Amino acid sequence: MTARHRNPSPASRRPARPTAGADAQTEPGGEDRVQPDQRPATLDECRRCALWHDATQPVPGRGPRRAAILLVGEQPGDQEDKAGEPFVGPAGGLLDRALVEADVRRDDVFVTNAVKHFKWFPRGKRRMHKTPAQREVMACHYWLEKELASVRPRVAVALGATALRALMQRADVRLTANLGQPMQAGDLTVVPTYHPSFILRAPDEASRQMAYAALVQALRLAGRIAEKTSAP
Ligand code: URA
What we know:
This protein has 232 residues and is of the alpha/beta class. The protein has helices at 78-83, 90-101, 134-151, 161-168, 175-178, 196-200, 205-228, and strands at residues 69-73, 110-113, 120-123, 126-129, 155-159, 183-185, 188-193. Strand 6 and strand 7 (188-193) form a beta hairpin.
């Protein structure tokens, strides 16, 4: 990405950028570098990978301090990057609809992403989504772990393959082979399902409906698991 395409952001929201060359990650060609030894205290200070550089701001998870259900997406999109909140754009709209249908209240769930900065590439004036590299997902697992430790969910819904790999901490786990089947990651039950953006991009109405039904079913299942495992 060139400086020309960097997203301007309110100065109050982000720390000063190091000058060019002061931070090896920000140099051309350094965009995929990770620094897993860094242990930042806040997301604003995070330089564990280079994605912070072209994002407006980090997007932390949002929801109750404690929640039985955690929803994990891939990374913030264009609108989330600007708003600083997860799932507020078109994918969020579809997720909201599916939650209503599954009888799960969004206010009761903690919603987050595997990667906390928007990774994008320019196309004209638009910022297009770019899938994060596995090493960026692993670098950002530092933050997902913190969210899991403080929210202490009983069940996590993995929205798409990136979220599933992040939650299972395995690069080889396949979404399609495990779709809708609860998996264990230690004490946490993980329900893998389609990402809302995948559903929005479905090539035809029949596949869209099929994928949407799978998402609703996964959310409903997460609701049942959360209820079943709650204290009597
Ligand atoms: N897609 C995601 O994975 N997360 C968001 O927050 C928005 C879109």
